[in-house]
Amino acid sequence: MDRVYNFSAGPAQLPLSVLEKAQKEFLSFEQSGMSVMELSHRSKLFETILEQTEQLLREVMEIPDNYKVLFVQGGASLQFSMVPLNLLVKGGHAYYVHTGSWSKKALNEAKKVGKTQVLASSEDQDFTYIPTIDVSILDENTKYVHITTNNTIEGTKFTDIPNTGEVPLVADMSSNILSEQIDVSKFGIIYAGAQKNLGIAGLTIVIIREDLIGHAPSDLPTMLNYSTYANNRSLYNTPPTFAIYMTKLVLEWLKEQGGVKQIEQQNREKASLLYNYIDESHMFFSKVKREDRSLMNIPFLTKSDELNEIFIKEAANVGLVTLKGHRSVGGMRASLYNAMPIEGVKALVQFMQEFENKNG
Ligand SMILES: *Cc1c(COP(=O)(O)O)cnc(C)c1O
C-alpha cells in the first residue's frame, strides 16, 4: 500500500516510523501479551508510558519546574471553556487577541463565563495579519490575555510573543506547538490538541504555571478543574491511554530528529520552499502579510475557483492529498507539520510548477 503526502490541517500526517513502531507493538506491548489499548491505566506499564511522555515533553520544550503538564480530553475546544472557568473568577476580566476562527470560538466560550474584551483584532483585513498589541491597558483586574499563536485556518502566526508582564499569557498552540523553539516561561498556560503536531486526536496537552491552579470556584465540576488533573497526575479518571502512547512515540521521534531546534530549521526550510514558489508564481498567490506567515499552515489560491478545484483534484491523483482550503477561506491550504518530510513539499512545489505551465 502506497502512502500519500497528506497536507491535512488535522488530524494530520504522522511520521512513518512512529506508525511502524505502533504497529510492531500493537498486539503485545513490551511482552505484556496486551496492546497498549488493553492495559489498565493503573498498571505499572502504563504509568511508565505516562511518566516518559511527560518527561520527554519537558525535555524537548525545556519546561520549567514550576509548570505542570496535564493530560486532558475534550480537545483544544474544551480549553476554550476550562481556561475562563478556572481563571476568570472573582470579578476580573480577560483580554482576547482576535486573529481568526479559533480565537473567535475561544472568545465566545469565555463570554459565557465572565467579562471579556478584545485587546486587538485583525478582522478588518480578513485575519491576514497579526495585530499589534498594546499591553499598557492591562490592569490588576486582568486575569489573563489569550492569544492563538498559530492561526491554522488563516495561515498567520505570532513571531513576537507579547510581553504581558504580571498578567498571565494564555496560548492556544494547537497547530504550532513543537514546531519552533519557544520560551515556556513567557506563558501562564499553553494548551494544544494532540492531533496536529503531537500525535492523535483524543488528547489535549495543558502546560500550566503552578500558581494558576486552584483558583476555580468550589462548585466547578470536578472534570473541568485543573486541580483535579494536577493533584492526580492526570489519573483521576481513565486518561486517553493510546493517544498518550502515540504522543510518546512522536516525542521520541522528535528527539531523534535533533529536537525542536533542528525541527524548526527543517520547518523553515520547508515553508520557504513553498512560499518562494508562491511569490514567484504568476498563478498562485497568498493573501497573508509576509512577516506574519505561518510555518505550519500555508493557504494559497489562484484567481479562479474552478482552477482551484481542478488543482486540488489533479494533485490528489498524484498522491498530494487534503489540499482543499478551509471553507471560510477557500482555495488551497498545505499544512506542513513536523511530520511532513521535505520530499513532500518538493513534490507539491514541482506539481504546482507543472500545473502552472500547463494551465497558465
Ligand atoms: C485544531 C484547532 C483547534 C480545535 O482543536 P480540537 O482539538 O478539535 O478542539 C483549536 N485551536 C486551534 C488553533 C486549532 O488549530
Automatic annotation (TrEMBL):
Its EC number is 2.6.1.52. It is found in: Cytoplasm. InterPro entries: Aminotrans_V_dom, Aminotrans_V_PyrdxlP_BS, Pser_aminoTfrase, PyrdxlP-dep_Trfase, PyrdxlP-dep_Trfase_major, PyrdxlP-dep_Trfase_small. The modification N6-(pyridoxal phosphate)lysine is found at residue 196. Belongs to the class-V pyridoxal-phosphate-dependent aminotransferase family. SerC subfamily. Residues 4-348 form the Aminotransferase class V domain. Binds 1 pyridoxal phosphate per subunit. CDD domains: PSAT_like. PROSITE patterns: AA_TRANSFER_CLASS_5. This is Phosphoserine aminotransferase. The keyword Amino-acid biosynthesis applies. It comes from the Bacteria. PANTHER family: PHOSPHOSERINE AMINOTRANSFERASE. It catalyses: O-phospho-L-serine + 2-oxoglutarate = 3-phosphooxypyruvate + L-glutamate; 4-(phosphooxy)-L-threonine + 2-oxoglutarate = (R)-3-hydroxy-2-oxo-4-phosphooxybutanoate + L-glutamate. It holds the Pfam family Aminotran_5. Its main location: cytoplasm. Keywords: Amino-acid biosynthesis, Aminotransferase, Cytoplasm, Pyridoxal phosphate, Serine biosynthesis, Transferase. Pyridoxal 5'-phosphate binds at residues 76-77, 102, 152, 172, 195, 237-238. Pathway: Amino-acid biosynthesis; L-serine biosynthesis; L-serine from 3-phospho-D-glycerate: step 2/3.
